[in-house]
Structure formats: structure tokens, C-alpha cells
Amino acid sequence: MAKTAKTSGLSGFPEWLPAERLVEQHVIDVFREVAELHGFSGIETRSVEPLEQLLRKGEIDKEVYVLRRLHAEDGDGSGAHGIDPARTLGLHFDLTVPLARYVLQHQNDLAFPLRRFQIQKVWRGERPQEGRFREFYQADLDVVGQDTLPGHIEAEVAVVMAEILSRLPLPQVTIHANTRRLSEGFFRSIGLEDHTGVLRSLDKLPKIGPERVRALLLEETGASPKQAQACLDFAGIRTRDASFAERVRELGGGGEMVEQGIAELTAVLERVEAAVPGVICADLSIARGLDYYTGTVFESFLEGHESLGSICSGGRYDSLAADNRHSYPGVGLSIGLTRLVSRILSAGLAVPSRPVPTCVLVAVTDEQSRPLSDQVARTLRSRGIACEVAPTAAKLGKQIRYADRRGVPFVWFPGTDGAADEVKDIRSGEQHVAEPGAWEPPAQDRTVQIQPGT
What we know:
It catalyses: tRNA(His) + L-histidine + ATP = L-histidyl-tRNA(His) + AMP + diphosphate + H(+). It comes from Candidatus Brachybacterium merdavium. About 35% of the residues lie in helices and about 20% in strands. By secondary structure, the chain is α+β, with helices and mostly antiparallel strands. Strand 14 (about 360), helix 12 (about 370-380) and strand 15 (about 385-390) form a beta-alpha-beta unit. It is elongated. The model is unreliable at about 75-80 (pLDDT under 50).
């Protein structure tokens, strides 16, 4: 007999147990259901893109997994390690690069604005740690226009994501919003021109604190002490309503760009608050991505789990893709779904009501009567009741213990010799006559329920 090789896990490549997968599937289902309620269509793109396309964001070149055939000849390409970026494929590291290619490739067959959601695995070769994986699900929600995209879409996408997050088994989630126009306008109004440098420095506030950020502003952006303090005060503004505007003006913010930014952010706050109360707030410390995003930017945080960082982020970008005929601006938000599920599981935020989908185990009296048990199972399934037939015709007590170990709540006993069928709730011990074409389990037992953890 051949020996079985000992296997071990690969760091950064999670494999959930069946009960854990039920929690992950619930998160996926909620995302899809809410997105479709708001008219978003699901798409799936190929897992690979040309390496040169993936490397256009040069800072992530070391994170891309290269795809090569097992029997590819050595030195088949050119460049470092025989890899030719123009001829080599890589696994996608996010869903934005594939979306840009997808929109350009299928533009003649798509209706714009395109309302798209996408839940798909991505791969990044970064160092695994808590909340960081090498293979994980990402869930994206985007509206992409052709040449133009109305400003109200920024609030609309945030509303949909807020509704998704509100339906998940999570503590309070707060979506923090800022807008590029407001930040850039403020820096201009106090006399700072290196907007990108200021944003880069402010982005480090959570990691290094205000004093070290102040030093960076003085050393790297040419800010005076007064300007540096104004930037820190600006980044400290957080409000649940439009009162942020007056505080910006008090710090010296003014001019057309500042007022436009105030109007944009106020509109987002009011629309999201009206749809999903208590979720949105203005947070002018948000700087990450403002050198890429062209409008509102969002980051979302989980109360009591701030160490996890932002669980959902995105914003408006006016340069997703372009060709000689059209440009494609968009607004999008993205959840690192596996990362979020990992925290739900590790913190015990949610558990399934049972570890398997099965509601009923149909017992088998003996192998000769297995067809009768199979018929009962077919009838129950035709009515949407998940069931399975016992694997062996063991003693009934052993079949009940099998159901108990699996977490199956009911055992069905087909009647023999003219006797009626009976069904047993093995949790309470209650047993009564039942007919497979009419019996209904309690509503909470019909399907697996995802419940708050203890």
C-alpha cells in the first residue's frame, strides 16, 4: 500500500471548514442580493491578465503571481528570469485592472452607465499576517459611465454599500467620507502647492501620530509651522453632518474649490444618512488614494475592531479607462471579503445555526427499502427542504447519532408494512406522524441561519 504524504497548510491561502464556509457564503449572498436589488449586474472576468498590464502600477510588481505552463521551455521569454511581460500572464491582484480591460473590450455590447458588481478571488504575493492573505475573495461595486458620470452616483454607490454592511453580522460600521476637491482646495487656500506631498504625509497619521506628521509637513512639503498646524487641524475634523463646513472655513479654507468640495461632501452625507441612518460621517483625515480618486473617497471602519483598518474603501475615479473615442469615469467601493470573514470568524461575531445545510436525515430501515427512503428525500427536496439519506442501514440509534454529529436537526423514519412515516426532532426528542408532501419544519430550521455570536 502506498504511503500517504503528510500535508501541511500554505500560509496565506485560507481553507474554511464547512460551518465557516456557510458564514462566508452568507456574506457573499447578502452582497449579491442587495446589489441586485439596486440594479447591479454581476460579472466575472478571467483570472489572468497580461503581465505588462498588471505591472502598470509598478509598485506592486513583486506581489503579482506569474502564470507559466509546467513544460514551458526555459528562456522562452526575455528580461529578468526569462520572463517577457508582453507574453507572460499573471493572476490578477485586484478587480479594477480587469474591469478596465473588460469595459474597453466589451464597450460596444454594454449599456452605460454600467452598474456592475463582482465577487471573485484575487491573488497577491505579499507577506501573510492577520487579515492579510495571498488568495482571497474581493467584492466590488462600481458604476461606470461613458465620457460622463453624474455626481449623485457617488452617494448612490455609498448607499448601496452601507445597506450591504448594515445587513451583515457586524458591530456598528461607520463609512468615513472626504473629497479630493475639498482637501486640495483647502491646501491651496492656505498657500500649499504640493498637494500630493501633503496628502502623503497626512495619510501616515494613524501610524506615526501628529508630531511626526508635523515634521514631515515641515521637511517634505515646505509648509510653515502655521500651515502644518492648519493641515493637522483640518485632518482632525470629523462630523456626522454638514457642520464640518464651518470648521473648514474657520481654519482659513475658502474659495471656489473649497465651496465646491463642501457642497459635494454635504450632498453625499445627506443622501446616505437619509437612506441608511447613522452610518456616514465626514472625516477630513482620509488621504489615502486622493492622488488617484478625483471625487469623494470612502473608508469604512468596524466599531471595536479599528485595528483591522478600513474594511471597505473606494471612491470616484475619472480615469478608469480610455481609448481614442471615449473615456470611462467610475465610482466604486470594494470589500476585502475574505479579510472581513476572517475577523467575523476569529472574533466569534457570527455562527451558523447548524454546520451543514441538511435539515432532514432520512433513515434507512434496511438496504432493500432504500428506494423508499430515496423517494421520501426526493419529495422533500422538491419542496425546497434540504435532506440526505443515511449512508448505511445501521441500527436506528446509530443513524440518529450520525445525524446529531452532523448537526442535522430532524430524522425521518419511512413507514413500513403500511405504517405511517414519522419525523423526530432529535434536539427535543419530539416525534410525530408526518407526510413528506405536506410536512414543514419550523421556519428557523428550514435553512441555515447566520446568528450573532455569543
